[in-house]
Every structure is written in C-alpha cells, then in structure tokens.
Amino acid sequence: MYKFRPYTDRIWHMRELIRDRVIQTDAERALILTESYRKNKNVVPIIKRPLGTYDLCANMTVRVEDFELIVGNKARTFCGSGFNPDWMGSGWIMFTDVENTWTLKEDGLYHNPEGEELRLTIAPEDVAALRSITEFWQDNRVGATADAWQPDGYEDFMRLEATDYQPFGIGLMSIPVGHLTPGFEKIINVGYKAIRNEAQDWMDARRGNLMGDDMSKYMFYKSAAIACDAATILIKRYGQACYDKAASCADDRRKAELMKMGGGLIWISENPARSFWEACQGTIMYQLFLAIDAGYPAPAFGRFDQYMWPFLKKDLESGALTMDEAQEIVDAFFLKANCFYGGFPGKLAQTTGIGNTYQHTTIGGVDRDTGEDATNPVTYMVLETIGRLKLHDPTISLRINKNTPDALWSCALETTKLVGGLPLFQNDEVIIPGLQAELGFELKDARDYSIIGCQEIVGSGNDYPAPNGVHAPHASIHYGVVFDIAINNGINPWNGRQAEVHTGYLYEMNNIGEVRAAFEKMARYILKWYVTVNNYAEYLTAYHAPHAALSISMEGCMEKGMDAAAGGCKYNSYGGTATGLATIADCLSTIKYMCFDKKKCTTRELYDAVMKNWEGYEPLRQQILSEVPHYGNADPYADDEFKWVVDLYYQLCTECSNPRARVYKAGLYGASDHVAQGYHTWATPDGRKTGEPIADAASPCQSRDKNGPTAVFVSSCVYDHRRFMDGIALNLRMHPTVLSREDGIAKLRDMTKAYFDNGGLECQYNVVDTDTLRAAQADPKTYRDLVVRIAGYSAYFVELNLDCQNDIIARNENRF
Predict the structure, then answer these.
(1) pLDDT tens by residue, 683-700
(2) H-only helix segments in 105-251
(3) Residue 19 class from Cβ within 10 Å (0-12 exposed, 13-18 middle, 19+ buried)?
(4) Are residues 595 and 668 in contact, defined by beta-carbon separation less than 8 angstroms?
(5) Span 347-375, mean pLDDT?
(6) How many whole angstroms separate alpha carbon 41 and alpha carbon 107?
(7) Which DSSP helix (H) or strand (E) runs through 9?
(8) Containing H/E element for 540?
C-alpha cells in the first residue's frame, strides 16, 4: 500500500486552526467598495468595476500569520469573510436579525445560534456598518436591473417552482459568473507587467484615433490595465507585510524565510515566477485577486500538477528545494485555499456544504502536446496533501488514461480510503473526444481540460463555460417536479400552479409512449423557459458585469480586445444539469410494469396514490418497491427507461443556444441538490414520498441498486457519456474492507478501469460502512474528521444536516 510522507508541525497547526474555525464576517470590503462606487457612480461598469477592485487592493487589510508559508486573506481576520456588495448588497445581514437571534458574548462579538451547522461571528460595529450601506446597494447592485424588469411570462414560469429560479429567491444576477478555470498558467509564466504593457501599447498606438469598433476594444484594454495595476499593488503590499513581519521576528530562520517570501512577492507582483514557491504563491495571489474582484463562486485551480511541475523540476535539479520542502509548500497551498471559504448561514450552507470553496483541482491525465501520460511528482503531492491532512476541500479530480501508472492508482485509492470521495476519477478516453465532438475543441485544448465546481468539464484558461447558467447557482431543473406536472395535466401538485401547456392526466394515458410524450412536452417547455431566463441574464451581464480581472488571464480576450463576459474567450458554452434522472426512469418503469405490462393496478389507482402522497396506499407502494425493476441493476427493463430519459435530456439541450454560445451543455451532477430538490417535490410514482430526496446526480435511486457495483456500472453505460460535457457524477459506497487488503485495492482499480473501457466518464467512491456512519451521528466529536462524498462535493460527515447524513446512509454498502 502507498505510504504517505509526514507533515510538519506548522502545517498541522494551521490545519487544526482551519478545522476549528469560527468565521468572523467584517464590513471592510463592503465599505471600501461602497465609497469607490459612490465616487465613480456614473462611470460605465467596464471601468467602474476594476476601479473598485483597485481601491480594494490598495486599502484592504493584508495579513501574514506567524506560521504561514503561503499568504493571502479575504478579510481582516484569519479565515474571516466579507461581502461583495456590488453583487449581494449588505449580504445575509439584510435578512438576519442578528441583534435578537444571535448571542453577544464576552469577546464582543455576536455568535450565531448553537446547533447551526456553521459557526459564525460578527462585531456589532460591522453589523451597523453593513446596515448603513443597505439602501445604497438596493439600486446599485449588479442585479438591480435584472430584478426591475423581466420578459413576459417570467413570473408565471417562476411560480411553477420547477427549477432553481424560485419566487422570492436570490434573483437572476446575485453572484457573478465564475464556474471556470482561470488562466493561472499565463499569470505565473507571463506576469502582470507584460499583460499591462500589451494593453497600454494597443491604447498608445490609437490615442485620439479610435475608429470602427476600436472604442469597445479601448474600453476593454483600459479595464485590463487598471486590473493589472490593482493586482500589482495588492501583491506588493503582501511583500511589504512579509518584510514588516521579518523586522520584528526574533527567530533567525523564520526571519530569513519571511525576507525571502517578501522578495518573491515583490517580484511576482509584476514578473513571471522564478521558483516553485513563487509559482504557488502567485497562483494563490491571483485566486485572491479574483475573490476580491467579484467573489467568483467556483474558480478552479485547473491542472495544478502540470503548470507547477516545470518550476519544481527546475528547483529540484538546482538543489534549491528538496522533495520534503516541496511537499510542505503544496500542503501550505491547499491549506491557504481552505482559508478562502466564506460561510453563509441557512440554506446555502446546507446545500453546498460547510467549507466547500469549489476550487476544484485537476491532476494527472495526458500531456496536451504529446498525448502521453503526464503523471509527475506534483500529482502525488496533491493526493498526499488531501489524504494526510484529511481535507475534504478543494475537490480533487484525477484524470485517468490507459497509461496511468499503478503507483498513482495506489496513491489515489489510499487517499480515497482516508477522505471519502476524493479523488474523483475522470476518464480521458471519453472526455477528450467528447470535447472535440460536442464543443469543437482543438485536440491540444481537449487534452488540457480541467474539472470545476462539482463535476463540470471545461477548458483550462481559455473557456468561458457558464456550466451552471450564467449566474450560478441557477443550475438545475427539478425533473421530479417536471414529471409530476406532466402526469397532472400541467399542474404542479406541490403548489397547484398550472403551466401554460397541458399534458393530460396519467389516468387518461393508454400506454407508456403517451406517458413519455407528456414528460417530453413538459420537459421541453420548462427547459426552454429556463434557458430563456438565463439568456436574459446573459444579455445584461456583458454590460453590467464585465470581468477585467479574469479576462487578463483568459486566452482570446487580450487577443480580441474583448471581455470574457462578452464572449472574448477562445471557447464559449453554457449549460446546466439534470440531477437524479434515475428517479424519472424508475417512475417510467413503474408505470410501464404496474399499469401496462403486468396490469397490477390501473393508471387511476397509481395516480390517486401519488396525489395522496401514498397515504392509504402503502401495500401498493411496497409492491412497487419490491417488484418493479429499478435502474442500476443491469436490468434492461429499467435501464432502457434511463437511456430514454437521458437521451431526451441531451436532445432538448441541443435545441438551446444564445449569441455567445452555440452549445448548451448537458450534465448529470449536483452538489447536494437531490436532497434540496426533494424537499419540494411531490410524491412520485416510483414509491418516493413527498419531501424525500430524489436520486443523486447520475446514480441509481438510494438503496435500489441490489446487484453490486459492477451492475451499477453496466447500467450506467447504456447511454453515451461522451455527449455529457457538462460532467457526470456517479457515486458508489464501498465497505472499508474492500481497501483493507491488496487484492481488494486491485479489484477496485480493475473494476474502475473496466468501467472506463466500456465508456464510463466518471466515478467516485465513499469508503465507509453504515455502522461507522451511525456511530458518527451518535458521537460527532470522535468522528469529527470523517469525510464523505455527497454528490458534487465532499464534507465532514458530522457537519452535514441530518437529511444529508441519512441520504449517505441510505446508499448501498458494496463489498467484493
């Protein structure tokens, strides 16, 4: 079995501080940006936004902790949080009665109520400051225009409650587009000065002579120059903070380290990185810069091992670093990434998980130029960091190809044993040709793909993919709701709302073809409306929410003189996800089996049972659960229904587009959306009751896969995974005994390889038994570091709400 290196004392100290964090929210960022926007109120957004970022970078608190090797903070305190008021106004303070529902303790801070999943604090003066700017941001938020007017029919669509667009929800433009992989490789290899010079040279050459479409390009290049200046001043301030820390440091070794860190930061504030440490620190600085600029919801780190290996290789060859020293830098990098989590109270923490930053990191895979396996020492280091420190974040995707070394498999599976669901296994042999066929990627760029957010597949530093819609988290259509509406003549039984189209009632349908036709009609109607709303948000985004800080690193933008939000990147697409289509497949199988093929009940009886939430129909429900074939058991009767519904979903996606993107990508993933969707999805014909979760991501319904993991893989391969370039998530839970012996590890590896050889795109494993999960519920302190995979993220099991915990427990426990 693979053996991990030890970690240093200061790394574990930082890890424990993060693990035990209580997040203090402050008003600093919000106040600085408010003053900047007041000063520049009438300046056009493409200039006003980077000017605001510059003011933030020049004035925000910068911190260097005594134990830090990689620096960068989003707020005044370690692991603290702030607000981006241009997007969210004064944030959750607007709807949280802190003064009356939180407790003011001796430390002078309000503390949120005991028992909530996330521990939060805020000072009274910060509450007052945030309340003082609420009125200003009501009319000056990016989303104010979208909230003021919407296309005809929007409100009727919203009231159906069949998507994440909900009445009285978070609005159409509440957070920025940010589900992508920024151009970290460009930043650390080119530097801000060279990028700024490119912009300035273009402007100087046309000073006083802007003709044709030159003005739009000028505005972009001006915004890019301001953004580069902002990044430079921010990083220089961190360099000076290291120097200041060194001046008062009594430990000679630490003093020298701080001086070296300060010099490195001053250098990379304008220039390309020269060393492994500078490359890692430069990547974190750019990530921090993006967070300050807009609070992007999921800026992935991309192929970290590929763009970092040349720097490490050089340092190892010159003797500047040892492997142990390099491992500590990687440890420090990912711990610092964990510090970027900004918690929010309430539903969001329950749905997206505590501590999840969505800075998805991709390792392994093939070389973009040669197509050969590209595994290198950094690949292993990333897995060691996650495994040794038992970190559930960032999510790690391991790209697998036919030549992936057995040693890497061993390291990956040992990591999986320690932290459930990490890494995710992604299949190069399916994804690379899929990107070429579906999105028109050049071979080199397809080979260089990375994974973001939950599971979304994107280009690295060249792709503006908006894979959750242009303003996430509007990612999902609730297909369980859609099915209920389809068999109820266009009426949502949850709320009684009638859609504009009618589909008939289940008891009027004479065969499974008519049931399928009703679902197709309603699914097409909902998806088209969903994309229409997204396209309206896209229309507003290009003007109101350009992203200069992001665009300076993205291939295509500087070349075209066009912001990423306007379509400047080399590749453009968008998309969504269909969480839990196994629920729909099982509904179709149930109707076909019970009503048409076996005639165990009439369509009227089944309809009445569903509409009454199975009350009074328990014998019928139990018959369905025990007799009807279910997806995930290698049974063509059920698997054919899954293939039909998945193929339909893909076909509907191909009918959608917008001016920036010709492709609306199909995905089969979710965060813990399957649990949240279940809360307001009425009962379904497969025996599921109102409020219960639907199937997670692309997985079978909970506990309905009875024939083991190979049967799940057989069922999963009935559809063409190459079409689903927004990503797929397939969860399996394995008993720990599987990975407790060498032959079990080999069997799991070989089973995964066989699945990939048969066309599987992705899989992820929880390695935990039911007894342990039950014990963790009873004794959270003992199991505080138990990590599990939900669907689109991993989490510490004890920090999940009870419904999410029970959802994990309900999944089958597989053995060999």
Answers:
(1) 999 999 999 999 999 999
(2) 124-132, 134-140, 144-148, 154-159, 184-190, 192-205, 214-247
(3) middle
(4) no
(5) 88
(6) 38
(7) helix 9-19
(8) helix 512-544
Flag the least confident range among 242-246, 282-286, 739-743.
Answer: 739-743
pLDDT the model gives residue 168: 56
Alpha-carbon distance of 26 to 45, in angstroms, equals 25
533 membership: H or E segment, kind and range: helix 512-544
> What average pLDDT score do residues 272-276 get?
98
Q: Confidence class of residue 314 from pLDDT cuts 50, 70 and 90?
A: very high
- Please report which confidence band the pLDDT of residue 342 belongs to, taking 50, 70 and 90 as the band edges: confident
Please tell me which residue, 119 or 166, carries the higher pLDDT value.
119
Distance CA 26, CA 130 (A): 9
Rounded to the nearest 10 degrees, what angle do helices 323-338 and 9-19 cross at? 10
Structure tokens at 209: 């002579």
- Tokens in use for 234? 């921010």
Res. 608: pLDDT tops 70: yes
Q: What is the DSSP string of 734-774?
A: E-GGGGSSHHHHHHHHHHHHHHHHTT--EEEEEE--HHHHH
What is the pLDDT averaged over residues 636-641? 98
Alpha helices, DSSP H, located in 553-681: 557-560, 581-591, 603-611, 618-627, 636-654, 673-679
Amino acid identity for residue 162 in this structure: A
Provide the token pair at 373.
């396996």
Residue 58, by phi and psi: left (phi above 0), alpha (psi -120 to 50) or beta?
Answer: alpha
C-alpha dihedral sign at 301, 306, 310, 316: positive
| H-helix or E-strand spanning residue 733 | strand 731-734
Beta bridge partners of residue 580, listed in sequence order? none
Structure tokens at 794: 């991993």
pLDDT in the model for residue 13: 98
Average pLDDT over residues 608-621: 98
Percent over 90 (pLDDT), the chain = 89
The conformational region for residue 751 under phi > 0 = left, psi -120 to 50 = alpha, else beta, is alpha
Q: Could you say which DSSP state residue 431 is in?
A: H
- Give the predicted TM-score (pTM) of the model: 0.97
Output the DSSP codes for 335-402: HHHHTT-----THHHHHH-TT-----EEEE-B-TTT-SB---HHHHHHHHHHHHTT---S-EEEEE-T
CA angle 548, 189, 227 (to 5 degrees): 20
Give the residue carrying structure tokens 């030549």: 403
Whether the ω angle into residue 423 lies within 30 degrees of 0, i.e. cis, is yes
Q: How far is the C-alpha of 601 from the C-alpha of 603, rounded, in Å?
A: 7
Q: How many CA atoms lie within 13 A of 255 on its CB side?
A: 7
Amino acid type, 678: G
d(CA 669, CA 395): 14
Q: Is 135 helix (H, G, I), strand (E, B) or coil?
A: helix
How far is it, in rounded angstroms, from Cα 111 to Cα 609?
46
Structure confidence by residue, pLDDT tens digits, 202-240: 999 999 999 999 999 999 999 999 999 999 999 999 999
Give the model's confidence band at 796: pLDDT under 50 very low, under 70 low, under 90 confident, else very high: very high
Q: What is the DSSP letter of 731?
A: E
| Long-range pairs of 256-265 with CB within 8 A, sequence gap ≥ 24 | 257/69, 258/64, 261/64, 261/69, 261/71, 263/239, 264/239, 265/71, 265/235, 265/236, 265/238, 265/239
Rg (CA), the chain: 26
Q: How far apart are CA 83 and CA 381, in angstroms?
A: 33
Tens of pLDDT, residue by residue over 387-419, are 999 999 999 999 999 999 999 999 999 999 999
